Target: Pre-mRNA splicing factor
Amino acid sequence: MSDSNHLFDSLPYYDNDLDQFPGLREKVDREFAREAKPPAALHPRVPPPIALFEKNPLLKAELERVESHQPFPRLDTLRYQLPAPPTPGSDEEWKNALKNAQAQLEHQRIRQTNLQLLQTYGSNAWRIHNYLLENTVKQTEKALEEMKELTVEVNRERKNTQTRLGKELNSLETRWTELISNVLQIELANSALDAEVNRLNKREAELAELAR
Model:
């Protein structure tokens, strides 16, 4: 901003031509309407979107469900039921029912083990998880505040620079107007002097003719 080699062809913080000339805003709006629409494709330097959960189809499907605002599917409770085979049932049907009952029993045993582990270690793990989340939130909020302060500082510096340059341009424009006015006055004075010289020369020639 401080380099004198920079070219400032627009001072949005200082220029107020659109407010001074109402008809100018209509012309600008017409020019914007004539411009081509921005391309739908992103700039080549913009990185491609990150594909999440490519190696985990279950999480990927769940993410797609949440993004599409689909309701959460109802739990399948059929596998937790113990339907008895029809009476009279065949040996194969009774064997399948027995396998289902054993699977349900094993499932309940695993759930009981998980609940015991959760009661023993779950609270500490949850506290650690919350602590890590709080630390991440603090770091993110700090980074956000620093970015906001940097943005405000950049805009403040830009506004001060443009205000200074705008005043300097107005001063130069006023000085230019004064110089142009002085030049015009000098040209008018020169024209008046030329006319007066021509008149005197003509008068001198007339007097010379009379002296003869």
The mean pLDDT is 86. Residues 91-211 form the longest helix (121 residues).
